[in-house]
Design a protein that fits this description.
By secondary structure, the chain is α+β, with helices and mostly antiparallel strands. Helices cover 33% and strands 25% of the residues. The strands form six sheets. The chain has a seven-stranded mixed sheet with strand order 5-6-3-2-10-13-12. A six-stranded mixed sheet has the order 1-15-16-17-19-18.
């Protein structure tokens, strides 16, 4: 079943993002989406040398038929649903009903032989009742992959499924005096696992995404991606959400598993979607720096929900006091040695130190949100791949300090232990039973008061929860 939301289409028609500049693609792909879904694919490339069309996953070729390939062209039929059923992994491809969520490189053969990743334009033609969508930016009527290989191109949602497109404020467009521009957030929801989700359930899930996008836009001063996709995959789990994954590539895509019993209150009390969307506002960092990427999302997530009015300041500090000890120990050997939960909570502790340092070094004028959002506006977005040192330098430029670069140099490889108890005392925060108490006379209390709710106790408008609307 397909549901296209008229309101979303009207919003996009009134405020659609400017199309990409005309540029010839190295390759064009025409995809005919037939019931199943089954894909008829024609891939044509221009190159000064012969090419090979290669499958990323060895299982892909088991579902290819009628393959006709030359040095510059490949035509074939691909049974996407059969492939997804065989793989049955939300990291690669998964089928629910007659809809499939699949990484682009799992069904599109990669043209190899270019010196640089080719620019690929993908045009989809769908049978009645079927859809095709991606997080890739649009160039005219085509989805465009540029500057990265297929393995980083993110998810596609294909077949019979719920699709809604929303206009969201473009990155940086909520800054004072900024040009007001809109981006596009595409929402894809597969059918239930073995049963059809009701339209009411789909509507509640889409509303959860919409309000989450508003909360993210408040923190980032604009939604963190100009064009992106959020896809939900129903599972048999009873919890609100399960596994979540973000693939940045040419256009950020987020996948989140949702439990079979949709409960709005549990959804808004859950952290996974907010955490994953934070990743879309940051580049992929090469090397052993998972702690920085996961730490940032782990640290920002509760702050973002507190500024939306979904979580109290006390609850944020209660969580940090309980969880950050899991990451404190890795500082003695250097964050590059972090594994498992240390990546999340050692990285989150690093972000707390950076947030304090940024506010101290700028006398309260700037914080971590200014650093990361400033780097995003400078082009370090979810489609980019870079090093931690380059990203830290961009972050520092945005606030006019070298705070983050200094902290990276100090804690990434060197053994610089952190005394958490002393840090809590300096910040003026302590826990007594279930209560969180604040000491405004503590040495770092001035900066602590800005961290969760922002300067002046929070200047961003709350995002109203649906049961309070």
């Amino acid at each position: 079943m397909v549901s296209r939301v008229v309101l979303g289409a009207l919003l996009l028609a009134l405020a659609a993002p400017a199309p990409m500049l005309a540029q010839s693609a190295d390759c064009t792909v025409d995809v005919e989406v037939r019931p199943g879904p089954v894909l008829d694919i024609a891939e044509r490339c221009q190159s000064s040398r012969p090419l090979k069309f290669v499958a990323e996953d060895q299982r892909t070729m088991r579902h290819v038929s009628d393959l006709k390939a030359s040095d510059y062209e490949a035509r074939y039929r691909f049974d996407l649903k059969a492939f997804a059923r065989e793989v049955d992994s939300t990291s690669i491809a998964v089928a629910r009903g007659d809809g499939v969520l699949a990484i682009l490189g799992s069904w599109l053969l990669e043209p190899q032989g270019f010196d640089q990743p080719p620019t690929i334009d993908i045009r989809a033609h769908t049978a009645d009742g079927l859809v095709f969508t991606s997080g890739l930016p649009k160039a005219g009527d085509a989805y465009r992959l540029s500057g990265t290989g297929l393995r980083f191109a993110g998810y596609t949602a294909i077949g019979a499924l719920f699709l809604q497109e929303l206009a969201v404020p473009a990155p940086g467009s909520l800054r004072p005096n900024a040009l007001k521009e809109d981006g596009v957030l595409r929402i894809a929801i597969l059918d239930g696992n073995g049963r059809d989700l009701s339209l009411g359930s789909r509507g509640e899930l889409a509303d959860w995404i919409r309000r989450t996008a508003e909360a993210e836009a408040n923190w980032w001063q604009g939604y963190p991606a100009r064009q992106s996709l959020i896809a939900l995959v129903p599972s048999n789990a009873r919890r609100a959400t399960g596994y979540g994954r973000t693939v940045s590539g040419g256009g950020p895509t987020v996948m989140v598993e949702v439990g079979r019993d949709v409960d709005r209150r549990r959804l808004f009390d859950d952290w996974v979607l907010v955490h994953e969307v934070v990743h879309t506002g940051m580049p992929y960092l090469r090397g052993r720096v998972t702690w920085f990427m996961e730490g940032a999302a782990t640290y920002i997530e509760p702050i973002l929900r507190a500024r939306a009015g979904w979580k109290s300041e006390e609850d944020v500090w209660r969580e940090w006091i309980a969880e950050m000890p899991q990451g404190a120990g890795v500082f003695a050997s250097g964050l590059v040695t972090a594994t498992g939960r240390q990546n999340y909570w050692g990285g989150a502790l690093f972000m707390l130190l950076a947030d304090i340092g940024l506010r101290r070094d700028t006398d309260g004028a700037k914080g971590l949100e200014d650093c990361l959002a400033g780097a995003l506006w400078d082009g370090f977005d979810g489609a980019r791949r870079t090093t931690l040192q380059e990203y830290a330098a961009a972050c520092d430029r945005a606030v006019g300090s070298d705070t983050v670069s200094r902290l990276v140099a100090r804690h990434m490889e060197g053994g610089q232990p952190v005394d958490l108890d002393a840090l809590w005392r300096a910040l003026g925060v302590r826990q007594e039973g279930d209560r969180i108490l604040f000491d405004d006379a503590a040495p770092l209390a001035r900066w602590r008061k800005m961290i969760v709710l922002g300067p002046n106790g929070g200047k961003l408008k709350p995002v109203r929860l649906p049961w309070r609307s």
